[in-house]
UniProtKB/TrEMBL annotation:
Disulfide bond recorded as keyword: yes
Organism: Nyctibius grandis
PANTHER family to which the protein is assigned, alphabetical: INTERFERON/INTERLEUKIN RECEPTOR, INTERLEUKIN-22 RECEPTOR SUBUNIT ALPHA-2
Name by which UniProt lists this protein: Interleukin-22 receptor subunit alpha-2
One term under GO cellular component: plasma membrane
Any one GO MF annotation of this record: cytokine receptor activity
Keyword Repeat: yes
Keywords: Disulfide bond, Receptor, Repeat, Secreted, Signal
Transmembrane segments: none
Annotated SUPFAM superfamilies: Fibronectin type III (SSF49265)
Pfam families in the record: Interfer-bind, Tissue_fac
């Protein structure tokens, strides 16, 4: 029995936590101390805070991966959820390892906007598009994150003549089309943008660079 207990403890999953970007929410964990025998498999359950019964996640039942997609199971974004994982190896099952409480609306990271650059002779016109959630409207299009939050866009310009790393803020606000004027012809400029959520005081990563020569 002791040997079994040791094996149970040594395969128990560690660091069970939710990662979430634009409400794409996945449960991640690390293998136990045993550094994982080849035949270790994992089982995932989830529940809404306050419910007594855990639900099995069928797609993540007896899997070898260390990640399980719970996007559809956490679609009520203001509800708090828990996930938990147990491992099995050589016929021995570990105890469950629970995650911390996870509330998608509060904890998801917001992605950067999509940036399209159109240039005229001394100005750049930017078109910004909010990141999209995985959840769909009845017609099938994905619901933008602006449906869930008041979002602002932060736009930065990089003058490649001066300094690759020097991002000058040129705009902050809600507009989806922005004009940056009084630029120098023949100079290469790059644009990056972030999404900012004032209510949570949280910014996205930078978008990928969009560059143009006037």
């Amino acid at each position: 029995v002791l040997e079994n207990r040791d094996l149970q403890d040594s395969i128990k999953p560690q660091k069970v936590e939710f990662h979430s970007l634009n409400f794409n929410s996945t449960l991640h964990w690390q293998p136990g101390r045993a550094r994982e025998a080849r035949d270790t498999v994992y089982f995932v359950q989830y529940k809404v805070y306050g419910q007594s019964t855990w639900q099995n996640k069928d797609d993540c039942w007896g899997i070898q991966s260390h990640v399980c997609d719970l996007t559809n199971e956490t679609s009520d974004i203001r509800e708090p959820y828990y996930g938990r994982v147990k491992a099995a190896s050589a016929g021995v099952y570990s105890d469950w390892s629970p995650s911390c409480r996870f509330t998608p609306w509060r904890e998801t990271m917001i992605g950067p906007p999509m940036v399209t650059v159109v240039h005229s002779n001394k100005s750049i016109i930017l078109k910004l598009q909010a990141p999209r959630s995985p959840y769909k409207r009845k017609r099938g299009s994905k619901i933008p994150m602006t449906n869930y939050y008041d979002l602002l866009y932060q736009v930065f310009i990089i003058n490649n003549l001066l300094d690759e790393q020097h991002r000058v803020p040129v705009y902050k606000g809600k507009d989806k089309v922005i004009k940056i004027e009084d630029l120098r012809p023949g100079v290469s400029y790059c644009i990056v943008a972030k999404t900012y959520v004032p209510m949570l005081d949280r910014s996205s990563a930078y978008s990928s660079r969009q560059c143009t020569v006037l």
